[in-house]
């Protein structure tokens, strides 16, 4: 669309992001942080790791990384919360990541706070920090992580513990978490092997 610029006196062409799509250059890769977590005030969220949807290379590759983190959380006695899609069942969760019978499980859309008791569960256990993993990066991980940040939780997302159908949604999710006004002050990106759960932990996620 052409319009007259009252400031410069010239006719200009109004380009939208769609017109300039191919000119976009992605920003530099963000720094991954080493973090130390207090198991008493931190919860590990494992979102929608169901066999029916976690069946492509990138999601399957994330399972051992999440499993390693889950083992550390179990050893430290951390709260572990699982989620399911609307059509999922507990038996659908990947066997390597199977929940204990005592683990809370919520069932919702991509925002796992919506219409569930997730916030009550976290509050009951005096949780201040959440580590968010699962599928899909641009679905449950993104929307639940942002919803947690909105509610005042500190959020850590291990990039090797989230996955999507291809690279771009993962890249976008990482960028969004660190740049959105709703999450940038509370979210950090990390990697599963950069997360330490010490026997005498500090009081918060750094």
UniProtKB/TrEMBL annotation:
What's the protein name?
A: Cysteine hydrolase
* All residue ranges annotated as the Isochorismatase-like domain in the record: 42-178
InterPro entries, from UniProt?
Answer: Isochorismatase-like_dom (IPR000868), Isochorismatase-like_hydrls (IPR050272), Isochorismatase-like_sf (IPR036380)
Spell out the CDD domains in the cross-references: cysteine_hydrolases (cd00431)
The superkingdom listed in its UniProt entry is Bacteria
A Gene Ontology molecular function term of the record: hydrolase activity
Query: What keywords would UniProt list here?
Result: Hydrolase
A Pfam family reported for this protein in Swiss-Prot or TrEMBL: Isochorismatase
Q: Family, per the entry?
A: Belongs to the isochorismatase family.
